UniProtKB/TrEMBL annotation:
Keywords on record: 4Fe-4S, Iron, Iron-sulfur, Metal-binding, Oxidoreductase
Protein name: NAD(P)-binding protein
GO annotations of cellular component type: plasma membrane
Origin: domain of life: Bacteria
Coiled-coil regions listed in the entry: none
Example of a GO MF term: metal ion binding
Stretches assigned to the Dihydroprymidine dehydrogenase domain: 3-94
Organism: Formimonas warabiya
InterPro entries: 4Fe4S_Fe_S_CS (IPR017900), Cys_rich_dom (IPR004017), DPD_II (IPR028261), FAD/NAD-bd_sf (IPR036188), HdrC_iron-sulfur_subunit (IPR051460), Helical_ferredxn (IPR009051)
Residue ranges occupied by any Cysteine-rich domain in the UniProt entry: 411-491, 523-588
UniProt-listed Pfam families: CCG (PF02754), Fer4_17 (PF13534), Fer4_20 (PF14691), NAD_binding_8 (PF13450)
Keyword Oxidoreductase recorded: yes
Keyword 4Fe-4S in annotation: yes
Length: 745
């Protein structure tokens, strides 16, 4: 966590846009553009006025340095910023400056030179109610502007901006020595070739000279006309610092940005051309403004599901997590980011896309562990998954075995906990294939420990890892063959001594004739997030799909940019609305069927009615793309069935059928089954409740409906059932669970 705190200090979230950094006035484009986009020309004009001081002059003379850095120039054409500025002036309802009712200040400032830089400084100081006197050696104000613009243009703008401000203008008054002046501060803006009174710039301070209280700027210092105006506006900050604190050594603010933007993510949009001479209509201005990317380092916000869902950048996430893990409230209640911490699906995309490689996901995983250690993480977020992992690694479903006649093996097939739970044939067909080519291949059925890792339960996770290592050693330390990218990822992280390969790479190497004929069908390969660092298997899947006759259509996010299907982190209980949103976003990336090689991806998309194949469907001809995934109860039954099948086929060992704990024949309507599955309620748990109610007599009878109601606490949860007896057992009318305990009399 400390490493993340240091990383996050480098976050580029608040860096200025490219155009803002290039603009001498540092116009806030992220404030200006949205106002134009919604047709708010008056509001846009205010933003522009506050930045440039003299909007009529600047819009006429600006050389548009922003166009040289606009990322759109790399795709189509830079934003026509100058035309948009002019549109703000043309369509604003009120061009008058703001009027501020501030008390006068007792400090006096002299401005030498009534050119535009000196006038800009005077304008800002006068608005702050300083006593300003301008000395101009000629008989007119404006300086170099007389050579660049018609006087009716710039004089009108100057007059308008000074409408509410008071200052003293001394024309035909040349200052030959600063000793003539008795002022608290002086700004020398005598223009190109003007006198500098023998002063030099002090690079330690913004606009500072080597004489206390005297500042230099504008064309005198080699600036062009636009930069001179900006100098006049910005020097006011340096003058105020001196007047208040006597300091002149504050460095000038750097106009730069560290933002990095990938042009490949820019969608081309044709530039808008003015239809009325050289000016935009209001509609055209709005359309051109909508082309603006409002550049910011928001790549994480645009591409990370979690940050977009919560609307929070890494900096804000870090702050909220800090007060959650280390609460500072009087009652010690740190719950600000509990759900946010539990919503990260650990896909790793945040680090991949961040220009600085900030790993917010890893930070949230460590935060999860810290919350678990503090006993502050709600157990309900992970209870089901930890119970499911315990079942998978228990006697009913787990297996670790060498083929008969072998003392050790070259390979061990580790299919993971979900492949056989979805359909036992995925495992039996794959293992049969491996045994046909490598007869000594061992088999390990179990869970890789991901649920405990994602739950932040280090102790439980350590137990799972230790058992996996022990079983691997007992098999002769073979190479692990993975069907699940998450399993391979977990082994690489926590069991790096175990060499691993993907089942699909072996299949491609050994050769197989796919039994599903793609016959030219167009599909898209969906890379699971756990395959992000596995480019070889990503290409293998595509080769196998093409061998089967499929045409491949790329997805917007694949390969290194693979995004989670919603399974990662097992967030569906902690934040079901987030999980649903993620699934919807994935399945609408295009209209073609998907080919998945993570069974969780396959089943999640199928449950959402997205046509999807698992690659093993294609290789072994198992199912069509619309197979309905099993319920949580059926997944447990499939694991039991899988163990029984492999023992029977490959070891001629007829495993004894485990007697059901509750010998109850329970009928559940299909619609109710769907509801129980959505709520992660096992039908076997409800059978246990009914068995308890029937044996103990603790049940309530409703004579109007003829239904019984009862409850039982199993583990952390209290389960309720509404049921009725039938001739052949019981019919479940409803079932649900909650975290409350019921105190029995």
């Amino acid at each position: 966590m400390e490493k993340f705190k240091e990383e996050i200090k480098t976050c580029l979230q608040n860096e200025p846009a490219f155009c803002t950094a290039a603009c001498p006035f540092q116009l806030d484009i992220r404030d200006f553009m949205p106002k134009i986009q919604r047709g708010g020309f008056n509001a846009a004009y205010r933003t522009y006025l506050n930045a440039v001081g003299f909007p009529g002059i600047v819009s006429a003379l600006c050389g548009e340095p922003c166009k040289n850095v606009c990322p759109r120039r790399l795709k189509d054409e830079a934003i026509a910023m100058k035309l948009l500025e002019k549109a703000a002036l043309k369509y604003a309802r009120n061009l008058n400056p703001n009027q501020y009712n501030l008390p006068p200040k007792d400090k006096k400032v002299a401005v030498i030179g009534a050119g535009i830089s000196g006038l800009a400084c005077t304008l800002r100081l006068a608005a702050k109610k300083y006593q300003v006197t301008v000395f101009e050696k000629s008989g007119r104000m404006g300086g170099h502007l007389w050579d660049l613009l018609p006087p009716e243009v710039f004089l009108a703008d100057i007059e308008r901006q000074f409408a509410y401000e008071s200052y003293t203008l001394c024309l035909n008054r040349e200052i030959t020595s600063l000793d003539e002046l008795d002022f608290d501060a002086i700004y020398v803006a005598t223009g190109a070739g003007g006198t500098d009174f023998g002063l030099q710039r002090d690079e330690r301070g913004a606009f500072a000279s080597n004489k206390p209280g005297v500042f230099l700027g504008g064309e005198l210092c080699g600036r062009d006309i636009i930069e001179a105006i900006a100098d006049g506006l910005h020097v006011v900050n340096a003058i105020e610092r001196y007047l208040k604190a006597g300091s002149m050594n504050q460095p000038e603010e750097k106009r730069e940005t560290r933002i990095q933007l990938n042009p490949e993510w820019i969608t081309p949009l044709a530039p808008v051309r003015p239809s009325e001479g050289k000016a935009f209509t209001q509609d055209h201005a709005v359309d051109e403004a909508k082309r603006c990317l409002k550049c910011s380092c928001d790549v994480c916000m645009r591409h990370c599901d979690l940050m977009r869902y919560f609307g929070k950048y890494p900096k804000r996430i870090g702050e909220e997590v800090e007060v959650t893990v280390h609460p500072g409230t009087l009652d010690g209640n740190g719950t600000v980011a509990t759900r946010l911490i539990s919503t990260c699906n650990q896909c790793g995309l945040c680090k991949e896309i961040c220009p600085l490689g900030i790993d917010t996901g890893e930070f949230l995983l460590h935060s999860h562990r810290a919350m678990r250690e503090n006993k502050a993480m709600p157990w309900v977020f992970h209870d089901f998954w930890l119970r499911d992992m315990a079942f998978t690694n228990g006697e009913a479903a787990a297996l670790c075995r060498l083929p008969d006649g072998y003392q050790e093996s070259r390979y061990v097939f580790f299919p993971g906990c979900q492949l056989g739970a979805s359909d036992p044939r995925y495992v039996t067909e794959s293992y049969r294939f491996l045994r046909a080519h490598h007869a000594d291949t061992a088999l390990m059925l179990g869970c890789c420990g991901a649920p405990a890792d994602w739950a932040g339960d280090d102790s439980l996770h350590g137990e799972v890892i230790a058992k996996l290592r022990e079983d691997w050693i007992s098999l002769g330390k073979p190479t692990a063959v993975f069907a699940c990218p998450t399993c391979k990822q977990m082994f690489q992280r926590y069991l790096p001594e175990i060499e691993g390969v993907f089942l699909y790479d072996l299949i491609l190497e050994l050769g197989i004739s796919p039994l599903k004929d793609g016959a030219g069908e167009t599909v898209s390969v969906f890379d699971p997030c756990a395959s992000r660092k596995e480019p070889e298997v990503q290409q293998t899947i595509r080769k196998l799909a093409q061998q089967a006759g499929f045409r491949l259509e790329p997805l917007p996010y694949e390969g290194k940019l693979a995004r989670c299907c919603s399974w990662g982190g097992q967030v569906s209980i902690a934040n079901p609305s987030f999980a649903r949103e993620v699934v919807k976003a994935r399945i609408t990336e295009n209209d073609y069927p998907f080919i998945a090689y993570c069974i969780n991806c396959r089943d999640i998309f199928a449950a959402a009615k997205k046509p999807v194949y698992h690659v093993l469907d294609i290789l072994f001809g198992l199912h069509d793309s619309g197979r309905v995934p099993p319920t949580v109860t059926e997944r447990r039954s499939n694991r039991i069935s899988l163990k029984r099948q492999v023992l029977s086929e490959f070891w001629k060992d007829e495993a004894k059928m485990e007697q059901r704990e509750n010998n109850i024949n329970l009928h559940i309507a299909p619609q109710l089954k769907e509801k129980l599955n959505r709520e992660m309620i096992l039908e076997t748990d409800l059978e246990a409740v009914i068995a308890y109610c029937e044996s103990s007599g603790r049940k309530v009878f409703n004579p109007e409906s003829g239904h019984f109601t009862g409850h039982l606490r199993i583990g952390h949860l209290t389960y309720w059932v509404e049921y009725r007896p039938t001739d052949h057992g019981f019919e479940l009318i409803n079932g649900y669970s909650h975290r409350m305990s019921i105190e029995e009399a």
